[in-house]
Amino acid sequence: MSNVLIVEDEPAIAESLAFALRRDGFSVDIADTLAAANGKLAQADLVLLDLMLPDGSGFDLIQQARRSGAHPAIIVLSSRDEEADRVAALETGADDYVTKPFSPREMVARVRAVLRRAQPPDAPAVPRATGSTPPMALPISVDEVTRRASFDNRVLDLTRVEFDLLACLVTEPGRVFTRSQLIDQVWGDGFAITDRTVDSHVKGLRKKVVEAGGDPNLIETVRGVGYRIATSAASEGGRT
Predict the structure, then answer these.
(1) Would the N or C end of the chain have less CB density within 10 A of its end CB?
(2) What is the dihedral of CA 40, 41, 44, 48, to 10 degrees?
(3) Spatial contact of 201 and 161, defined as CB atoms under 8 Å apart
């Protein structure tokens, strides 16, 4: 049974989420402040996190979670729908971003989908692309067993979604993956993810590749269609 920690200071929202999740078989704990959440973080498989809390920002909890050994999945809950807020949350390490108001039924579906992505390599298969780096020599290396990715031997510190996107793209360098295909491969069928969410995660992935010394055009945007790994990357390698 997966344990979900709800970090939310509005009792009505917290209780409605808790009721829906418990009815669906989850173990649920609730914290209404960052201080209370800190003591419960290690036991959580997934955190539903409001960004605006009485004693601080939810971003602080995301950073602490990503530094801890537990590494719970995180879904941000927010009343703000600005792109900058979504990008900031995803780049900090959140796995998903949901704007209020939302239905408890939708949140249960999102929790299941995020936990499915977070399964260890030997868990039952999740509907997404599998396999390691293809035979074509790329400056990017992806190992799906250890879930480690690197650029020219420099380890990339990727979120779960960023890793899964990269693992999908490198299976066929040069092939254009549509946003719909990426959603199916990374999130799975029947899960409501928008094109903007895909774009935000790719932006974060591309930024980390560039920070490791890679060309920003290594992950190419095909306007109006989707994304691909540039085939020129195989022959040119990484930049120095």
Answers:
(1) C
(2) 100
(3) yes
pLDDT in tens, 121-176: 444 433 333 344 444 557 888 888 788 898 888 889 888 888 889 988 988 888 88
Helix, strand, coil distribution of the chain in percent, nearest 5: 40, 20, 40
Name the 3-class secondary structure at 202: helix
Give the confidence band of 191 by pLDDT, cuts at 50, 70, 90: low
Nearest 5°: phi and psi at 167?
A: -60, -35
Structural domains in the chain, CATH included, are 3-117 (3.40.50.2300), 140-236 (1.10.10.10)
What is the value of pTM for the model shown? 0.56
Task: Find out whether 45 and 3 touch, Cβ atoms under 8 Å.
Answer: yes
8 pLDDT tier (thresholds 50, 70, 90): very high
What is the CA angle 132-157-170, rounded to 5?
A: 25
Nearest to 73 by CA among 2, 144, 128: 2
**161 is written with which tokens?**
């979604």
